[in-house]
Amino acid sequence: MESTLSSRRPGRPLSFNRDFALRQAMLVFWRHGYETTSIADLTAAMGITAPSLYAAFGDKKQLFLEAVRLYAGDPRAMADGIDAAPSALEAARGLMTAAARAYTGEDTPSGCLMASATASGSAASADVQRVVADIRRSVRCSLQAKIDQDMQAGRLPPATNGAALAGLVMAVMQGMSVLARDGMERPALLGIAEASLQAWPGDA
Description:
Layout: H1 2-6, H2 18-32, H3 39-46, H4 50-57, H5 60-72, H6 75-84, H7 88-103, H8 113-117, H9 126-152, H10 162-181, H11 186-196
Helix pairs in contact: 2-3, 2-5, 5-9, 6-7, 6-9, 7-9, 7-10, 7-11, 9-10, 10-11
């Protein structure tokens, strides 16, 4: 491995489209999961050799983490989007609507990459599981902060359990991912999202 990496001269341009290769890797992880995806699976989909993969991305774990960042987007932008929503209810609706669309894309595998890729929960993927859990935790905390703002502004009852409400949204989104993997179509997932919002304090 070291000889392969050291043979690549600094500044030497890549002989492939890195962004395209990364997207292809993301789709493979999304479809097959982190642990069961092999280097051979990845190189075949990305159209590159194993030495090129290691030189450009480091190793399988680093490639997966970069694929997750591509999938999840900028965490700060996600937090800003939640904060900019007219209300916590609309932030929750926006998250679940976006999830339903992402889970049922025409050109992507069904379900959520982060849920699918780390479903095994074995010790071998503990590092990547922690990263994925941190991303979900960040979204949940941002939504809870928005709920707290609505409570302080009087838009939600003062006795609202913000942590439980934010957790409900995340739990529904995870369940929607499983149902999408089972073949449930987008309209049905959107219906589940709206039904879950009936638990929102006040008028959903």
